Amino acid sequence: MVRGLKCGKDTHIWGDFPRSLDWGTWHPDYIFVDLPFPKITTRLMGQTVQESDLIAFIKEYRRVNAGSSMAEAKEDFHWLQEQQEAMRSLPKE
Questions:
Q1: Is the pTM of this model over 0.70?
Q2: Burial of 15 (0-12, 13-18, 19+ CB in 10 A)
Q3: Most CB atoms within 10 A, among 1, 12, 49, 68?
Q4: CA torsion sign, 10 to 19 to 30 to 64?
Q5: Which residue stretches of 2-51 are H helix?
Q6: CA of residue 23 relative to chain centroid, distance
Q7: What are the E-state strand segments in 1-93?
């Protein structure tokens, strides 16, 4: 169930009794998590993290975050992996 979102289907029958959205077995292709400001995060970076492609992540990271080191890129790669894993392991209702 997706919390905070309501379905308005059949409100003419049931009135103001909100229905939550049930996405069933659907899940997003990629979980997008932003790096803390002022770092820039792109969709490609999110995809490379989910695919565990460190090399592609570092290339994109250093392209959009000029002046950053490889060590910083690796650190942020692992941080994003942890964030994505935490999102995946949220309880499903």
A1: no
A2: exposed
A3: 49
A4: positive
A5: 11-14, 43-50
A6: 17
A7: 2-7, 19-21
